[in-house]
Design brief:
318 residues, alpha/beta, DHBP synthase, Rossmann fold, 2 domains, eleven-stranded mixed beta sheet, four-stranded parallel beta sheet, binds threonylcarbamoyladenylate, binds magnesium ion
Length: 318
Amino acid sequence: MATIGKSIDEAAAWLQTDLVAIPTETVYGLAANAFSEKLVLQIFEVKNRPSFDPLIVHVAQLDRISEICSSFPEPLKTLADAIWPGPLTLLLPKRKNVPDLVTSGLNTVGVRIPSHPLTQRLLNALDFPLAAPSANPFGYISPTKAEHVQQQLGDKIPYILDGGNCEVGIESTIVGMEGNYICVYRLGGLSIKELESLVGKVKVKVMGGSNPQAPGMLDVHYAPRKPLFVFDHIDEGLTKFGHKKIAVVFAQKPDVVPEFAQVFWLSETSNTRKMAQQLFHILRQADQSDADLIITEYAPNEGLGLAINDRLKRASVK
Ligand code: TXA
Ligand code: MG
């Protein structure tokens, strides 16, 4: 199994020749030297990830971006200045030194400066950027604790840098340019409202596997092993599946907690930040329960609720 620890030196040493799981404010990443084709290939193998799904490259600071990107369009630079380090990934024109394997042959590279203090220190200690997808088997729920990584990938990697619970709890918002428009390709830890307060109206293009700009944003994703059904309100789910052995995930703690099922909730109140923070941890718990299926309900359609609901849709049985 992997060693779980807090040593920057150990993580940096392993990264010279191997993969390391790293904490970020969004979710844990499975990191490798972005310039090493051999190690990047290993990321795809460990995750069982198809090679058409490009990786995000993590850098320490803004002045390192020019090492991997050939230009920085002004509106995206505005966002970077306001948000980084933070839960935002920008699609920027890539330099040739970034292996095509990282970008799945696209001419843009997804870049992000994460804010987690341990990973900030780690990136500053390295002389290469880190390619890192979420540290979960392809298609499964992303990890938000070191133990989540250990459970699923612990036998395939040497070291997990333990940064505690991820503060945001869902992946970064992915943003790029189409002509003069700013486009959002994945809803995430930075809400549309926050984005628009900085740069005005943006286009939201988070379709599914058919979206050529974002080959990895497949229709089925973030999914537990047990069948998951999502409803507008839990009551509808109870009516439909109440006679079965179910795990029930409320968005907000209910006034009356049903006694017959295994019950979870994402937040005590209607706070969508709290819901996002708990989402993947609670879905894992429901998945590990002895229920046969999971029923859940949509979060309020505001703030991070939109990103939560996008994930619930993709995780659910169609
Ligand atoms: O919060 C996050 O973004 C986390 C942490 C570890 O940074 N990472 C993450 O990576 O969620 P991953 O690989 O699970 O999701 C990355 C998504 C994929 O859906 C991929 O298709 C998209 O980013 N992506 C990466 N580079 C792209 C590019 N050049 N063009 C379009 N989509 C890209
Ligand atoms: Mg992922």
